[in-house]
Amino acid sequence: MGNQFPDLPLGLGMGLMMNHRARDGFEHLSETEKEHIILKCKDAKSKKEMDKIINSLSPEESFDELFQGPGIG
Predict the structure, then answer these.
(1) DSSP element (H, E) containing 10
(2) Which of 18, 41, 60, 63 could form a disulfide with 12 if both were Cys (CB 3.0 to 4.6 A apart)?
(3) pLDDT range class, residue 58, cuts 50, 70, 90
């Protein structure tokens, strides 16, 4: 079985493979938004933080909440 997400951090790729709603959300992002998510995942300090990022990609979660606060923008 090949890697569906070869350019993504391992935790993000695994999370997207296990969460189809988050995967669908990620696929509908612009390239810039995807880059921001990838950078956030690279900076994640814990599994809990990574899970929060991945869960934010699901349609019922607010993607914009991820970018509030310091570090982005």
Answers:
(1) helix 10-18
(2) 41
(3) confident
